[in-house]
Design goal:
- The protein has 80 residues and is mainly alpha-helical.
- The protein has one domain.
- Helices cover 81% and strands 5% of the residues.
- It is built from three helices and two strands, in the order ααββα.
- The protein has helices at 3-23, 27-55, 65-79; strands at 57-58, 61-62.
- The chain has a two-stranded antiparallel sheet.
């Protein structure tokens, strides 16, 4: 799975956890789910940051701002 695919998967998992937290009736379960959610959000943020840094470099050189914006648009379209 590529970085974008991993981000999409992590996003769906985090989304599910938000719903589970909202529906949890037991405070102990809610606390446990919040901890799991926090861990998943940290992992998601790290992967997103890593993917963003990788997309801003080509052959070890920074990509110009207009090329970086074009790449972001292309990634957004492919994720949709």
């Amino acid at each position: 799975m590529n970085s974008v695919g991993t981000l999409e998967f992590q996003h769906r998992e985090v989304e599910k956890l938000f719903f589970r937290v909202a529906l949890a009736s037991d405070s102990g379960m809610r606390t446990q789910l919040f901890k799991e959610l926090a861990d998943r959000l940290v992992a998601y943020a790290a992967m997103e940051s890593q993917t963003e840094r990788a997309s801003s470099m080509v052959c070890g050189r920074p990509v110009k701002a207009d090329a970086s914006a074009a790449l972001d648009r292309r990634i957004s379209r492919s994720a949709a």
